[in-house]
Write a structure and sequence with these properties.
alpha+beta, Beta Polymerase, domain 2, Methane Monooxygenase Hydroxylase, Chain G, domain 1, 7 helices, rod-shaped
């Protein structure tokens, strides 16, 4: 996926003889793609396209929800699209709003970041695409968005499987944090997909968008793909939740086992130390009549060794080792 950039860009395209070409000026049946525009560029667009300025600024709000509204000579549709950020360690995938302004003689797409949805149209990956057929172009954007959601969901699942394999080899909190970041991405995806679903349902009821029979079938395909993406996001989210709970329990159990082992070793080592300390006192003690006797050391060591072996055997019988 294309990494999000901070470029300021306005490009104009028009389909001529089934070929998408870049043009320099605003023309009828053209497509204007706007990426992270400046305020001066928005004012220019507002003047050239004769649309209110606030319509152009709404899709630039990173928290803008999916919705659609109609003005006098244009219809604004905002959808949430997936974006990957390879530079972020916290959330590798997230969503941003994409504004689609359908006018009488043009269509404008506005987004804060460069994205793969628009790149697929520019690179000719979408069949039967024409800037003159604005209603179908709108539906094709939604279909491409749903397909990209499905693609990114598969990437999230692949990343989760890689993290799972690493967790089997090394139980570290770092791997759980990676799973948590993937789960955050799934939450963003699920929320945005449900928002898009509600907007698509509302899109069918808008009187100012007249769909042909072919476009109604395309809209049905979009709704089906969007529902499939929602189901996949929910499934992967449930899998990740169960995986995180399981591995968190495993890590906790491993920590408990290590603590138990270290405690047992400490007790075993403390026993000969205790015996040696007792026999180091300057008083009469059993088993040794004369502490200056050369055999006294070995007697004390034998007692300590025997009691230690007995304690180890007891711990093994109780499965504390």
């Amino acid at each position: 996926m294309t990494a999000p950039g901070k470029v300021h860009m306005i490009t104009i395209y028009k389909t001529t003889l089934a070929v998408l070409e870049g043009i320099q000026e605003f023309e009828a049946d053209s497509w204007v793609n706007v990426v992270n525009p400046t305020y001066e560029e928005l004012e220019r667009l507002s003047h050239e396209l004769a649309v209110p300025l606030d319509i152009l600024t709404d899709p630039l709000d990173i928290d803008e929800r999916s919705r659609c509204e109609a003005e006098d000579n244009a219809t604004l549709v905002i959808a949430r699209i997936p974006v990957a950020d390879d530079t972020s360690q916290d959330i590798p995938f997230f969503t941003i709003p994409l504004g689609i302004l359908v006018g009488e003689h043009h269509i404008v797409t506005i987004c804060r970041k460069d994205n793969d949805v628009m790149h697929d149209f520019m690179n000719g990956k979408v069949r039967n695409f024409s800037t003159a057929n604005r209603t179908r172009f709108l539906l094709q954007i939604f279909l491409r968005t749903a397909l990209l959601y499905l693609r990114d969901l598969k990437e999230i699942n692949t990343s989760a499987n890689i993290v799972q394999e690493k967790l089997h080899r090394a139980m570290e909190n770092r791997q759980l944090i990676k799973l948590l970041s993937l789960q955050k991405s799934l939450v963003y995806f699920t929320t945005s997909l449900r928002s898009n679903e509600l907007m698509l349902e509302r899109l069918q009821k808008l009187p100012f968008l007249r769909f042909s029979e072919e476009q109604i079938e395309l809209l049905d395909d979009v709704i089906v793909e969007n529902k499939q993406a929602i189901e996949m996001a929910n499934i992967y989210n449930n899998i990740l939740t169960g995986m995180m709970d399981a591995f968190a329990s495993i890590i906790s159990n491993n920590v408990g086992a290590v603590v138990k082992l270290l405690t047992s070793i400490t007790i075993v080592l403390a026993l000969p130390t205790l015996i040696a300390s007792i026999y180091g006192m300057n008083v009469k003690l059993p088993f040794v009549r004369n502490l200056e006797d050369p055999v006294a050391f070995w007697i004390v060591m034998g007692i300590a060794f025997g009691m230690t072996i007995g304690l180890v055997y007891y711990f093994i019988r109780r499965r504390w080792f």
